[in-house]
Design the sequence.
């Protein structure tokens, strides 16, 4: 078997048979779970309102510049919010990862699973709230694109991973998962912003950085180091198989499939840019074609 595919060999076997027993192994008491949910849900509502306000402000400013077409104003607002969030989130994530020495020593993710720094707790609740708000925004007012359903399932899986990894103390590996995602999202939204504002050279350079970061973080580090850490290092360090092991690995595998799916779309954009000039989001064009049929 190919070495980096070995972790997935025993994936499709019966999953947890006693959910009640598994839930009893959570490291957070039920009362604390209620407190965290009481924090998360209002914060998600706050982020949803903030997101909407930022998008409206960005659309207004973008319209005043005269550089953005009317059909791109809403998308410019969305990308402005996402760029600001992912940039600050990625920098905070890197700080916490380095503070706790989770990378490159990924085995450290499984040590001291019962302790969390205040920085990590705050960041985790913030990220969970962000993805809950993103799910609602995706359904309610985001521009519809070809990958509507893949993105919908991505939000669902991400919420499950963040929530359950925090519940069971697997926050260390969770930080690496978030690190692998936020980095490329910064370049993705940056490239869009430059395109909407017609700075083509900056858009092309940022798009090239997106491809490099996507390959490095999502197609290399994530499947070769992060997922195997869940499969192998967790049991070596902890001395037992983690709770909901097959669920966690399955969710991570779903994310990896989505990474490959989106990378194919990214390559289509790159191909069109090379032969036709200009960077256009093929997801938006395909979605428009579907609506006109």
Sequence:
């Amino acid at each position: 078997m190919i070495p980096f595919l070995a972790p997935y060999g025993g994936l499709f076997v019966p999953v947890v048979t006693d959910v009640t027993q598994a839930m009893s192994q959570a490291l957070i008491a039920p009362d604390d779970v209620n407190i965290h949910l009481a924090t998360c849900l209002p914060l998600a509502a706050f982020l949803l309102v903030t997101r909407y306000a930022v998008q409206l402000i960005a659309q207004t400013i973008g319209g005043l510049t005269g550089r953005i077409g009317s059909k791109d104003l809403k998308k410019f607002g969305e990308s402005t919010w996402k760029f600001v969030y992912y940039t600050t989130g990625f920098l905070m994530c890197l700080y916490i990862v380095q503070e706790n020495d989770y990378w490159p020593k990924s085995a450290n993710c499984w040590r001291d699973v019962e302790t969390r720094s205040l920085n990590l707790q705050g960041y985790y609740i913030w990220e969970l709230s962000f993805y809950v708000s993103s799910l609602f925004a995706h359904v309610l007012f985001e521009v519809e694109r070809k990958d509507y359903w893949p993105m919908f399932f991505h939000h669902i899986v991400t919420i499950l991973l963040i929530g359950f990894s925090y519940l069971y103390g697997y926050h260390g590996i969770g930080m690496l998962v978030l690190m692998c995602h936020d980095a490329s999202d910064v370049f993705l939204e940056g490239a869009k912003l430059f395109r909407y504002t017609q700075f083509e050279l900056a858009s092309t350079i940022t798009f090239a950085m997106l491809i490099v970061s996507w390959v490095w973080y999502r197609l290399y580090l994530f499947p070769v180091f992060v997922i195997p850490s869940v499969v192998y290092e967790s049991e070596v360090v902890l001395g037992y198989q983690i709770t909901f092991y097959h669920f966690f690995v399955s969710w991570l595998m779903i994310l990896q499939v989505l990474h490959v799916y989106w990378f194919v779309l990214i390559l289509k954009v790159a191909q069109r840019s090379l032969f036709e000039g200009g960077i256009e989001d093929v997801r938006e064009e395909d979605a428009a074609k579907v609506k006109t049929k």
User: Anything to note?
Assistant: Residues 200-238 form the longest helix (39 residues). Residues 1-5, 7-24, 286-293 have pLDDT under 50 and may be disordered.
